[in-house]
Amino acid sequence: SAVISQKPSRDICQRGTSLTIQCQVDSQVTMMFWYRQQPGQSLTLIATANQGSEATYESGFVIDKFPISRPNLTFSTLTVSNMSPEDSSIYLCSVIPRGYEQYFGPGTRLTVT
Amino acid sequence: GNSVTQMEGPVTLSEEAFLTINCTYTATGYPSLFWYVQYPGEGLQLLLKATKADDKGSNKGFEATYRKETTSFHLEKGSVQVSDSAVYFCALTNTNAGKSTFGDGTTLTVKP
Question: B13-35: per-residue pLDDT in tens?
Fold first, then answer.
């Protein structure tokens, strides 16, 4: 299993600012994933972050808007840049330590005003 | 590409009623299938999983069977409780990519 923590748990930000979300895992994992869950909707994958390489972004998401760092095998950050109200969502970090069982962090609830 | 289609909600049941939430999928290769649950104000938790055809995942009285012939993974519980009220997500993980595709979620409300 894997225990994942995220910081902050929630934040209220002003339009045009940026927020960096941290994800910490209690074990070393190769792949980490960042998801977005907009209000009342399902999860959408933003990007896959592997240690030592550039993140791979899904269609509709770009590095300038969502830069990701992955400095080691237990930590990653996602930055939401130049925020607008449409970025108000829950942002979730997840890992697959082995096999195909995916573990999720508690999420960061972001509100942009 | 991969896709997951869930039964539309919301679903409202009385306590001790039988629950079925339908889930069908489209995928290349041989995906693993999952049900996740999200309680109000909380993150996602894995409820159960099945990694190959005819596997049955079970947990907390919930069951789902991986049916390759019908590409389905329906969630069932014989007697729901108020504490089962949550949003349920069906998902698949493609063995090659390692990332998951989620259904839209089904909100279940159980009334006493």
Answer: 999 999 999 999 999 878 899 99
Q: What is the pLDDT of residue B93?
A: 87
pLDDT confidence of residue A40: 80
Distances (CA, A) of A92 to A50, B66, B76: 16, 27, 27
CB of B98 less than 8 A from some CB of A: yes
> What is the count of residue pairs from A and B with beta carbons less than 8 Å apart?
49
Distance from first CA to last CA of chain B, Å, rounded?
A: 41
Asked whether A95 and A32 are in contact (CB, 8 A), the reply is: yes
Q: Do B104 and A42 touch (CB under 8 A)?
A: yes
Contact A103 B46 (CB under 8 A): yes
**Rounded (5°) CA angle B49-B53-B59:** 25
Residues belonging to chain A: 113
Residue B99 pLDDT > 80: no
Query: Which pLDDT value is given to residue A30?
Result: 86
B43–A92 CB contact, under 8 Å: yes
Q: Tokens at residue A93, please?
A: 């970090």
A13 in reach of chain B (CB within 8 A): no
A42 has pLDDT over 90: no
Instruction: Note the residue count of chain B.
Output: 112
Facing residue for A45 by CB, picked from B42, B99, B103? B99
Amino acid letter at B50?
Answer: A
Do A100 and B99 make contact, defined as CB atoms within 8 angstroms?
Answer: no
By C-alpha distance, the chain B residue nearest A104 is: B44
